[in-house]
Specification:
Length: about 260
């Protein structure tokens, strides 16, 4: 069993306030065999409190990558799962913690995967959640469903370890194989910029009042798990549309009907 897969699975903590929680996360990760911790703009780090709470997992802290934005933390990932303590307005494809573990373990053979955790006080923003392929919710007491972030991270890492152990016994669930690699998160973000720019030029999207259009398009493309070839085709189409607009220097005319 390829234990190096553990290194392809990263935990990402966004804007963490309490350094103790970072230490707790490091410990939870090491207990389960994981080592890749990314901190997006933490409030206080490095910090003594993180070292105390990490106990024997100092090596995970020493290996921490501190980055400025979530985009940087997930740029090279082919699978991104966002954690959420509550239901959101626009539902996203949801996996259970167990399915999350299975998917992460299966896909980590091919590309880096990330599980993203939010702020202690208000979780992840909608914009951050909309960068994910799936959301995962730990089914806790509905009257009190927000776990401490270190505890939530422990549950997710435990499920990844369970998937590793099942796979070791040849019992891992199998997901579809694909001929092309999935797009990396950064390429998807570039695609959304290109798409939005084109839709604005076409007057399809009003930048002053975009409503939920881009969110719904993100959800469409994120849930289809676009591959790199498909993304190249879509980018090529957008470039052709933009060239057409540029060369005719006017708005696209409506298509003419056959019977004139
Ligand atoms: N009041 C915040 C709670 C955030 S809890 C909110 O409403 O979103 C801090 C972080 O812990 C969350 O962003 C998430 O990463 C994780 N977390 C806590 N409870 C969770 C749950 N039941 N399922 C999944 N993640 C959870």
């Amino acid at each position: 069993m390829n234990e190096q897969r553990f290194q392809q699975i990263r935990m990402v903590m966004v804007n963490t306030t309490h350094p103790g929680n970072i230490g707790a996360a490091a410990r939870a990760m090491k207990n389960m065999g994981l080592s890749e911790l990314y901190l997006v703009d933490p409030k206080e780090y490095p910090a003594e409190k993180a070292v105390w709470r990490a106990a024997g997992a100092i090596d995970v802290l020493e290996n921490v990558k501190v980055v400025a934005t979530l985009d940087e933390a997930i740029a090279d990932c082919g699978l991104v799962v966002g954690t959420s303590a509550r239901e959101r307005r626009i539902p996203w494809p949801l996996v259970t913690p167990r399915e999350c573990g299975d998917r992460c373990w299966f896909e980590a053979e091919k590309h880096p995967v990330a599980v993203v955790f939010g702020r202690e006080d208000r979780g992840l923003t909608n914009e951050e959640l909309h960068k994910c392929n799936y959301h995962v919710h730990i089914p806790a007491n509905p009257d009190y469903s927000a776990l401490n972030i270190g505890a939530a991270l422990q549950v997710i890492c435990y499920e990844i370890r369970m998937s590793y152990l099942s796979a070791k016994e040849g019992k891992a669930p199998h997901f579809e194989e694909w001929d092309q690699p999935p797009v990396k998160n950064q390429a998807l973000e570039h695609y959304y910029e290109h798409l939005q720019e084109t839709l604005v030029k076409l007057d399809f999207l009003d930048p002053g009042n975009p409503r939920q259009t881009m969110t719904r398009l993100r959800r469409l493309f994120n849930r289809t798990r676009l591959d790199q070839m498909e993304l190249n085709i879509l980018r090529g189409m957008l470039t052709s549309i933009q060239n057409y607009i540029y060369h005719t220097d006017k708005k696209l005319e409506p298509p003419k009907s056959d019977n004139g």
